[in-house]
């Protein structure tokens, strides 16, 4: 199995990148997520967008559909199997959560209110992203509040700007310039994303700026396509599919009829019903057998309390609810490991707990 896993690791076999939305309160994080997640009316029910545990999954065809107008010129050959967007915008713990030594999140959208520039939590988010080495884009949101903005619903941002009068474009330009200066004061080099040179794009710490309106949707295509491009062109090494489970606990919850459950993000690899796993609890390592792997039903109408779809196996990246015994004291933000047929249980216990030690160390440094 090990050999098969190694053979399968290739740039042509990637997992979904995990994306988180961050930023100061009231910059429009929730609105942006809503806009990104909006159900495609023409396709009927959520069309290729499915609600997972703690996250929303977007199919490649849905992404291409959403970005069609922009991709007619950008021509990105999408090789990702989709993207997974964490559902709790602004929740900084998601950026801090790690899974076996690596970050839980592959990419972030840092939302800035174009009218306000950088604010306190923007700066805190910036520091955290940089200390974790998480690549991110800055959404210069509320572009529609520039004087006399004419809404061009859901258009690529350059088409929308082309529709505006000169004064409106000038206001946008000077506000964007201001944001750039403020970012530079924090030691961050940035530019409007379509004005970045090849060197900027190659540089690992250069940040693209994307003007957006979370209300009328201008620039949302741009954000989605840019994140996909960054993921597959810059992050493909960390996104290569591997058979080994990489999995992080988001939350421990009692659910009526199911008992204690653990919501996790399976970052990479496969988890199966019947797997023997080791988790971290306040009292030390816990060994448990996976008795159920659950995801919410695909359509909202079906979403009756405690009605879930049961799976035999789940491949990352995906959010899923686990059922098992002894999960009461499991801690959020800790890793889960499978005890394979050739593994010593004691070794896995030690490894899981050592990861926890380095996790708490890294948190206390922040
Ligand atoms: P959060 O605290 O960052 O999640 O911000 P919200 O998404 O709750 O938005 C805060 C306020 O800004 C709400 O009143 C939104 O309607 C408004 N808002 C968010 N995005 C935009 C935008 O792009 N344009 C305009 N005009 N208002 C926005």
From TrEMBL:
- Every Tr-type G domain range: 14-239
Subcellular location field = Cytoplasm; Plastid, Chloroplast
Superkingdom of origin: Eukaryota
UniProt record similarity statement: Belongs to the TRAFAC class translation factor GTPase superfamily. Classic translation factor GTPase family. IF-2 subfamily.
Q: What is this protein called?
A: Eukaryotic translation initiation factor 5B
């Amino acid at each position: 199995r090990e050999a098969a896993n190694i053979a399968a690791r290739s740039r042509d076999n990637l997992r979904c990148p995990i994306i988180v939305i961050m930023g100061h309160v009231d910059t429009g994080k929730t609105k942006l997520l809503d806009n990104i997640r909006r159900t495609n009316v023409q396709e009927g029910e959520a069309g290729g967008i499915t609600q997972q545990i703690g996250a929303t999954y977007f199919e490649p065809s849905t992404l291409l559909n959403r970005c069609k107008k922009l991709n007619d010129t950008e021509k990105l050959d999408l090789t990702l199997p989709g993207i997974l967007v964490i559902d709790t915008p602004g929740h900084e713990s998601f950026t801090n959560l790690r899974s076996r030594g690596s970050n839980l999140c592959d990419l972030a959208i840092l939302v800035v209110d174009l009218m306000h520039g950088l604010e306190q939590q923007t700066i805190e988010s910036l520091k955290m992203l940089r200390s974790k080495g998480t690549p991110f884009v800055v959404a210069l949101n509320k572009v529609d509040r520039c004087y006399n903005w004419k809404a061009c619903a859901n258009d690529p941002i350059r088409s929308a700007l082309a529709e505006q009068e000169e004064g409106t474009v000038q206001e946008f330009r000077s506000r964007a310039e201001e944001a750039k200066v403020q970012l530079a004061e924090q030691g961050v080099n940035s530019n409007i994303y379509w004005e970045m040179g090849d060197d900027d794009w190659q540089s690992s710490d250069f940040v693209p700026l994307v003007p957006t309106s979370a209300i009328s949707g201008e620039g949302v295509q741009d954000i989605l396509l840019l994140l996909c491009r960054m993921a597959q062109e810059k992050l493909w090494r960390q996104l290569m599919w591997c058979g080994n489970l990489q999995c992080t606990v988001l939350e421990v919850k009692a659910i009526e009829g199911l008992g204690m459950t653990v919501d996790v993000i399976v970052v990479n690899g496969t988890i199966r019903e019947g797997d023997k796993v080791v988790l971290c609890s306040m009292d030390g390592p816990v060994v448990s057998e996976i008795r159920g792997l659950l995801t919410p039903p695909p359509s909202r109408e079906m979403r009756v309390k405690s009605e879930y779809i049961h799976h035999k196996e789940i491949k990352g990246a995906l959010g899923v609810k686990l059922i098992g015994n002894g999960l009461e004291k499991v801690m959020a933000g800790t890793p889960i490991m499978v005890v394979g047929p050739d593994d010593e249980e004691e070794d896995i216990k030690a490894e899981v707990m050592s990861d926890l030690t380095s996790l708490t160390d890294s948190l206390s440094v922040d």
